[in-house]
Amino acid sequence: MRPLKPFAVLALAPLLVGAAKPTLVPDVSQRTIDIAYSFTGAELLLFGAILYPGGRTPGPDDKPADIIVVVRGPVQSVTVREKRKIAGIWMNADSLRYRSAPSYYAVASSRPVDQLLDDRTRAIYELGLDSLQLSPASTAPIDEQNRFAAGLVSLKAKQGLYVDVPHAVEIADGVLYRARIQIPARVPVGRFTAETFLVRDGRVLAVATRTIHIRKSGFERFVAASAEDRSIPYGLTVIAMAVGLGWTAGWVARRR
Predict the structure, then answer these.
(1) pLDDT per residue over 218-242, tens digit each?
(2) Torsion-angle region of residue 38: left (phi > 0), alpha (psi -120 to 50) or beta?
(3) Which domains does the chain have, with CATH numbers?
(4) CA–CA separation, 19 vs 25, rounded Å?
(5) Which of 165, 163, 64 is nearest to 109 (CA)?
(6) Which of 104, 117, 180, 227 could form a disulfide with 73, with the two C-beta atoms 3.0–4.6 Å apart?
(7) 2/52 Cα distance (integer angstroms)
(8) What is the reported pTM?
(9) DSSP string, 41-80
(10) Minimal CA–CA distance to 118: which of 197, 207, 203?
(11) Among 160, 146, 148, which Cα is nearest to 71's?
(12) Angle 231-255/218-229 helices, nearest 10 degrees?
């Protein structure tokens, strides 16, 4: 077998460097979260390991690695309305609709995200509340888009649906990591993704994803499924129940 020539070694060097990158093995404590009438929220544990080439552990000369975890809910269309005080009365004024805003978004990291990555990289991966790509439905001026985006993020944050928790990821021995994220009681149902990013020296080295399903259970699930799959019978039943309850309330009032 002929030995490789110097120029061939140089050509293969980028491939060898790329193959030497560490990888992620992530997991979550719950792949399915059921929402019943008594649901008050849940705590989601995200954990995993950083696998280095050759099974080695990072040495004292290695640059420390950081972990960013993002839990994202299904996207939805959202209209943000701005209230103004007109003639002493608060009224809806301007509004802006977003085609694809995440219904839930939580980011946890070992250090603040803006200390780990530059603005461009954070925007590419949508890492951080200020880096979300919200896709406005109209061509409003940039200042107006930024104002409404800040309002949307602030509103979702007050509802516990947009969360940023720096220093929430713990890394043990540079290999094992874990983070806890609170799922609020009013979380929407659907398919969620838990993305884990391995960051070192200002670059994203590895990304891994796990899927989480949040669904209604028990009677709530039956009602939601009936409303979606059998809309006409469901609507007629709701109307009949409303009429029946109204008639019963009137009959009780007349008997008194």
Answers:
(1) 444 444 444 455 556 656 665 766 7
(2) alpha
(3) 21-216 (2.60.40.1930), 217-256 (no CATH)
(4) 16
(5) 165
(6) 104
(7) 31
(8) 0.74
(9) -EEEEEEEEEEPGGG----TTSPPPEEEEEEE--EEEEEE
(10) 203
(11) 160
(12) 120
Distance (Å, rounded) from C-alpha 195 to C-alpha 65?
A: 16
> H or E element: which one contains 98?
strand 89-102
What pLDDT, in 10s, does the model give residues 42-79?
999 999 999 988 777 777 767 889 999 999 999 998 88
* Rounded CA separation 90/96 (Å): 18
Write the pLDDT tens digit of every residue in 146-198: 888 888 999 999 999 999 999 999 999 889 999 999 999 889 999 999 999 99
> Considering just the CA atoms, what is the radius of gyration of the chain in Å?
25
Ramachandran region of residue 221, left (φ > 0), alpha (ψ -120 to 50) or beta?
alpha
CB 98 within 8 A of CB 80: yes
Under 8 Å between Cβ of 24 and 208 = yes
Go through the chain and tell me how many residues it has. 256
Residue 254 tokens read as 């007349």
